[in-house]
Each structure stands twice: as C-alpha cells, then as structure tokens.
Design a protein that fits this description.
The chain has about 525 residues and is an all-beta fold. It has a domain at about 280-345: Thrombin, subunit H (Beta Barrel).
C-alpha cells in the first residue's frame, strides 16, 4: 500500500509540470562562463548604461546586473534618443529620463526630444518639459510645433510663427526657418533678420532678402547693397558688403564689377580676386574650375590654387597625392600643382590616385597604373575601386576580386560580393552565404554563414539556419549555433544569448486530511 501511494504521488507531481512560454536569456562573462539566466521576452542594449527588458506583462529599465529597476509602464519601447526613453501603450506615448525618472505620462500622440527639452502633442495642443526647470508647461494650441536641431522651439499657427519659450514669446513672424547653423532666419513685416539659440534677435529684421549659405553665414541684399553676414551670439557681423552685383547659385558666389566677373567669394569675403576670368564652375565642395580669357584653366581650392592656371588643359578635376586628373584633346592624364603634365594625356578615362595607384579605362574595361604612369594591370576589369591599406576591389563578369599593389589578384576565386568593414576586414559573399577575411585578404572564416558580425578578434557572431553563435577568427566555437539572438555588452564585458530554454514550474499536489507528522514527533 505504501509503494502504491508513493507511485501515485510521483505521478501527480510529474503530471503537474507547467512549461512557461517566456524566452530565457543566458548571461555570460568575457570568458564565456555562464553567470545567470534571465527570463525576458526581449532585451535591448540602448547605450552603455541603458538596458531595457520586456516580458509578456511589463517593460522595465534594467540594472547593470539585468535586474528590473524601474517599471516603464508601457507595452513597448517607442524610441530612445539619449537621454530620453519614450514608451507607449494603448493610452499613448510617455517619457522617462535614462536615470529612471518619469517626466511625461503615457498619454500623448507625439513627443519630440532634445537634450534638455521635450515637446509633447495631444491633438493640436502642445506641452513642453524643460529639464532645467523640472516642470511641464502648457503651450497652447498650434497648427504645428517643432524642436530645431539646436534646441529652439518653433510654433506655427495659420500664417504666423512664434518662439513660445523665448523671451519674446508674443512676437510673431511671417517665417522662422532653421538651418545647419545656430541662428534662425526670421522674416517680419520690416524684412529679414537673425535670432540666436536663446531666442534673442542678433540681427534686426530689416534686410530686404537674406538666405543661409553654410554654417553660421548668410548672403543678403538690402536696397543697393550686397551683404555677407556671420551670426554672432550677441550681434551679427557684416563680414563683407559691396554695391557691385554678387550672385549666389548652387553654393557658388561670384562678384561682378561693371558687368565683368572679377571675384570668387567665400562665406565671409573674397576667395579669389583676378582680372580676366570668364567662367567659374564648382565641381565639388570648395573646389572650382576657373577659366580665363587667354584660355588658361586652373583649379581653385579653399586655400588657393590647387593647380595653377595653364593653357594646356581642357578640363581639370580634384585629385589626390599631388596629382590631378586633367584632359587635353579629349584624352586624360595627370598634372601636378604647377599644371605640368606628369602622366601624358593618353587615356580614355582615369580615376584619382589612391596609395599611388589609379585606374584607367580603355574601351569598356579598366586597368591599373602607378604614379609614374607604368601599367600594372592591363584593362580587364569592369570596375576598380580605390586602394586602401594595400588592397583594392576589382569587379569582372559579376564577380569581385582583391588586387594587391602590383595589380595581381590575391585569390583566383571570385565572389558575388565583397565589402570592407570599418576595421579593414573583408566580408565575402556567394549564394547568399558570407565569410570573413583579414586585412591582408586571407580567409579566416569560410563562406558558409547566413549572417556574420565581427565585434573583435575572439568574438564574431555568426548565423546558420536561423540559429546564431559565437566563433573566433580561427574558427574556434565559443558559443554553439543554438541561439535565436546574441547581444554584446562590451563596456561591461558581458554577452547575452537568447535560447529556446523554457523554465518549468513544479506544482505540488494538494494533500487532503491531516498532514504527516514531522520525523521528530514520531
């Protein structure tokens, strides 16, 4: 009878094992030793200190040990813009500071963020939370309100604009426009002006026309005068003014005296003052082709002539390593800064030099030359990309190869894709599989993986058949390919791996009647 009761009790216990459907994360140290298991549906590493864990019923800010520290109240993370954590649920969006302080309840349709400012909208009503004051202010109803990239708050109602948090919050404008600089372009009935970050006027709105050029510089025209203006926190400065015509188009400013082109301008003054100019072309930022009446052509940079004007050039382009691609009689070669031909114009097309190597085109194919003009590789490639750390990518027949500095192919096998990482490593791809090569082009991991991400030499996340793991550059397995997701917490030297492990709860069967006596009472 006793054995029968024991068997029945074990059956009841085993039949009451209940699997939990939540996922489990395994937490490893830098030596891949298991430290603990964490029951979260998902974990997000948002910064070195901000970690968020989600379960079926909650969203928490986590401690450095990945334990729940602050209930974020939402169902999902909406956005993280340091230092603000935006969360949402069925009621709306709310905001927490990364330290865990709740600053806006979960009730808004939209929240915009800046480092010390939040702008919340519900319908057409707006509120602002200012971190320095530690309070939320109701702003009112607007057609639209926005925070600029430097923290100014612009509001629009109908045809009028205003700055609700500025000292002149009641002042309205026809236009308030931000730009890459620190000063708003403002238009009032009296004209255009400038407003600083604090919302104070640093240029009274009296200029007839004013446009932003670059940085904190502006180009204006007032009555008969052309102006180059620089923003200033206290009072804007007129850096250059002229009664001669100045044109501004596509980043190119030119001044004409008595109808003739005379000066190439920069944001705050004269870049080049030369008689006899007939044409200036901006070929890239701060680089200009300048042609003269005597048919000389030069290349002008921010600090002066990159290539002095010479009469032997039809076209000239920006170059590298003291050599500039140039054209004569329809053919290309290279000139130096004095305009002298260093490599004669005998090529159909060329690229700028990189690491003393340049590509040249013949027919439909590209070859490779050195900085003396000697041919290193005959035209056989569809494309040759610039050299970097002694290697270049070359493509042919929809395959990619690595070339060394002599123009030779490192490995005869071509790949459908080759890409260079920021660290100089190479990812190789064939048939939707990926492998890894070092900075010399030597294969370290064969092209067998669906996914590959190199964190450091002994930590490469790889994936196969929808499972991921960790290997080293030598192929040693640190974590087997058994996981759904892997997160690397490098600052804290920890690794999180999401597994299919499901915790099990054991429910003891209920006992009826009297409890058994303790052994000491027998």
């Amino acid at each position: 009878m006793y054995r029968l009761k024991l068997t029945l009790c074990l059956f009841l216990i085993l039949s009451a094992l209940v699997p939990i459907q939540a996922q489990t994360w395994e937490l490893y140290d830098s030596d891949y030793q298991l430290k603990s298991r964490l029951a979260y549906e998902s974990i997000l590493l948002l910064s070195e200190t901000v970690k968020i864990g989600k379960t079926d019923s909650s969203l928490h800010l986590l401690s450095s040990e990945f334990k729940p520290s602050v209930n974020l109240e939402g169902d999902d993370l909406y956005q993280f813009l340091e230092p603000w954590i935006l969360v949402r649920n069925e009621k709306g969006i709310g905001a927490f500071h990364e330290y865990g302080q709740k600053v806006l309840d979960l009730e808004y349709d939209e929240i915009q963020t800046y480092f010390n400012l939040l702008l919340a909208r519900k319908g057409n009503e707006y509120w602002a939370y200012e971190r320095g004051k530690g309070k939320t202010t109701y702003l009112g109803e607007y057609e639209k309100a926005t925070i600029t990239h430097n923290g100014q708050l612009i509001a629009k109602q109908g045809e009028n604009y205003s700055l609700p948090l500025s000292p002149n919050s009641d002042q309205s404008y026809f236009l308030l426009s931000e730009n890459e600089g620190d000063y708003l372009l403002a238009k009032a009935a009296s004209g255009y002006g400038l407003i600083n970050i604090e919302g104070k006027t640093v240029l009274e709105p009296v200029i007839d026309t004013l446009i932003h050029t670059r940085g904190n510089f502006f180009f204006g025209h007032d009555e008969e005068q052309y102006l180059l203006i620089e923003g200033n926190p206290i009072k804007a400065n007129v850096r250059y003014n002229s009664f001669h015509k100045i044109t501004y188009e596509d980043g190119l400013m030119l001044e004409y005296i008595h109808g003739k082109l005379r000066r190439v301008m920069e944001e705050d003054g004269i870049l080049l003052d030369a008689v006899g100019m007939t044409q200036v072309n901006r070929i890239e930022n701060d680089v200009y082709q300048v042609r003269f009446r005597d048919d000389k052509l030069g290349l002008l940079g921010k600090k002066g002539w990159l290539v002095k004007p010479t009469d032997s050039l039809e076209n000239i382009y920006n170059g590298q390593e003291g050599l500039f691609p140039a054209q004569k009689n329809g053919a290309y070669g290279f000139v130096d800064g004095e305009g002298n031909w260093k490599i004669p114009p005998t090529f159909q097309e060329v690229t700028p030099f990189s690491e003393a190597k340049a590509a040249f085109k013949a027919g439909l194919l590209w070859g490779l030359m050195n900085d003396q003009g000697s041919i290193l590789s005959a035209p056989q490639w569809d494309e040759i990309k610039p050299f970097r750390q002694g290697l270049a990518l070359a493509g042919k027949d929809k395959k990619w190869y690595l070339l060394d500095t002599s123009g030779k192919v490192i490995a005869n096998e071509g790949y459908e894709q080759i890409s260079r990482t920021e660290q100089g490593y190479f990812l190789f791809g064939n048939n939707q599989k990926i492998g890894l090569a070092n900075t010399l082009g030597d294969i370290m991991l064969s092209v067998d993986y669906d996914f590959l991400q190199r964190e450091k030499s002994d930590l490469i996340i790889v994936g196969q058949n929808q499972k991921i793991g960790i290997v080293t550059e030598s192929g040693d397995v640190k974590l087997p390919l058994d996981y759904q997701e892997i997160l690397v917490d490098l600052p804290n030297r920890q690794i999180l791996a999401k597994s299919n492990y499901r915790p099990v709860i054991v429910i003891e069967p209920e006992t009826k009647g009297k409890q058994k006596r303790k052994r000491s009472e027998r």
